[in-house]
Amino acid sequence: MTLEADYGEICRYLGYRRDTPPDSGMEQTIRACARRLEEAATPRWVSREFPLARLPGGALELGELRVESGSLSRNLKGCQRVILFAATLGVEADRLIARASAVRMSEAVILQAAAAALIEACCDSAWEALRREAAGEGWHLRPRFSPGYGDFSIAHQRDITALLQTPARIGLTVTEQMLLAPMKSVTAVIGMSRQAAPCRRQGCEACGKTDCAFRR
Fold first, then answer.
1. What is the pTM of this model?
2. Through-space distance between the first and last CA atoms of the chain, rounded to whole angstroms
């Protein structure tokens, strides 16, 4: 999968705003770091479809996975099935950032921002591929919703990676602290509905943390 990190998103992660863009020298540095990150990364993703059931008391059953989350329940309103999803940029992206951190922290910060933008591009590309496939069967997809959003416990990272067999398929594991490794990775649930949603909300627009410094 060949992807590019969105320059505007990298700048947003770095704290720049439209009215205070990077100067020409910094722009060159940002773009150079983004190219290095893109060359090091090996974006990969996997998914698997499951039936969705709503249990007494408000819990959700995603195939064999039981989840108690009001936030996820609202995201999946009107859905009959779900797609469990995982994506990663691979271990070399992490190694590039680690090496930069030991030598020049300012460069490592830019690489971190580029990696954040690139994993989003990977997830968006995968979502679009899944959307096209689902549309052919009469389904509409909801925005992806990841563990850690709202009250959707981050502990479900382990459940999703186990069901998707990500260690063997894309080299993605979960630490004892429930963090993903490689770090630049994502797990998520994507709802499937026979009815089109009125809008496609994702990322910042789907997050309730309105005081976040990186909010669009």
1. 0.88
2. 27
